[in-house]
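Appendix B, record 7
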Amino acid sequence: MSKKNKSIKLSIDQLDPSAPPEHESTKTGHTFFQRDFGLLDYINDVIFIIDEAGHFKFINKVSEERTGIPTDALIGLSYLDLMEPRYHDFARNSFETAIKGEAGPAFEMEWLAGSGETITVEVNWTTLYDGGNAVGVLGALRDVTERKNAQEALGKARDELEMRVKERTEDLQEANDLLKEQINERIRAEEKLRESEQKYRGLFENSADAIFIVDIETGIILNANQQAAQLTGHPHQKLVGMHQSRLHPGERAEYYKDKFQELIKNQLSFDLEAEVAKKDGTIIPVFISSGLVTLQRKKVVQEIFRDISKEKMIADLKGELETKKLVNRAKAIIAKHYRINDSDAMRMLQKESRRQSRKLKEVARAVISSKFILE
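Structure tokens (predicted):
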């Protein structure tokens, strides 16, 4: 039981003695209200007693402080006189429930205090008995404005939180949708890339690599297969007798001579990405796998040239795809940050790329990693 209810219970016990004097009426209850209720003046809430007809018979001194109305002016008035009409029906039903001896719920209402401000009060009341007969109602009125404001503030905070959660959920849903679209786009791009790779693998697996047999001492090509002729554009008879360094662009001839001598000196095999200069001047990227082998009891160098033009192309496509994704992500970040469209965001990226003399992909990656936001 709360402290307030204990106070009300104490007052009721003192007001409803178990053996009332014989000269007091046990039927009408009129002499009941002639008792001294001064003890109720020491309760901090507004305490009042109402008879069966709903008229005030007692109001403690606290009420005068809260309402600014002398207590004597309230005696005899109906409890409805102190309420706004909008509360009458509920208050009347609650009072009638209490006067019948049944427990009624507390209710809240707005009230004009003596200070002139509108406050929220909570009204509780319970039946008063005299000799077993209900003679009135003991009520308590408490200022719950702070509690009400706290509840409203809590409700407002809850509503704001729910709104933020909803907004955040919508943002996440939008981001999720965008991510799904990016994933789908990536899947489509990877499928196209896969198709290209599969097509390339099929073509490659059905063709032979270019193979050159080179003299270990002179570097002169001793033999070459048909695929070598096709790769270089030189006929087989032209390739035989040619120095192996001439297979590559002229400006890189010395580099390939040194690599060949390194192979001979260390008696090791090596793999190398290189370029082949075709007869018509076209540069072909190749992967070279070289090693020492013995043919007809003679040690020679076997060089297997694999055309990796398509692989290079695929790698370039992957790089372009990666760059495009980075740029798109960076554009989205900049557009959201500055509330601009994609075109303006792209121009900002390009401008920053030129200013820093850095690749667009590098600037985009810096934006994504939050190292800086373009000014």
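Remarks on this record: The beta strands are 46-51, 56-59, 107-112, 118-130, 133-143, 210-215, 221-224, 270-277, 283-295, 298-307. Residues 1-29, 199-207 have pLDDT under 50 and may be disordered.
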